[in-house]
Amino acid sequence: xxxxxxxxxxxxxxxxxxxxxxxxxxxxxxxxxxxxxxxxxxxxxxxxxxxxxxxxxxxxxxxxxxxxxxxxxxxxxxxxxxxxxxxxxxxxxxxxxxxxxxxxxxxxxxxxxxxxxxxxxxxx
Length: 124
Known about the structure:
By secondary structure, this protein is mainly alpha-helical. Helices cover 56% and strands 0% of the residues. Helix 1 (2-45) packs across helix 4 and helix 3 (81-89) packs across helix 4. It is elongated, with a radius of gyration of 22 Å.
């Protein structure tokens, strides 16, 4: 009888530990995601890197341009993240007459930087 009580107590303890680990995992993922979004915003607003503000209006940006469309409701406009990333990487694929810089092919931004900018832009 004592042995089964010991097994139940041990099983409950292990389950509690596993449950706690499961609870904290989303917080670290959210922290990583928030960090990526902040890094993407920094790149997008950086006049020497992404320079998105040269052509687009973005909430929180100063001296925004009006050549490109305002970047609002981006999750609705690009529900598929890969489509948004591809647009930033090389907009000429969908519109050969675009004046948007092909950030990927011209190596203005690295693949990682394009990923970060796309994560930020999708939050707008």
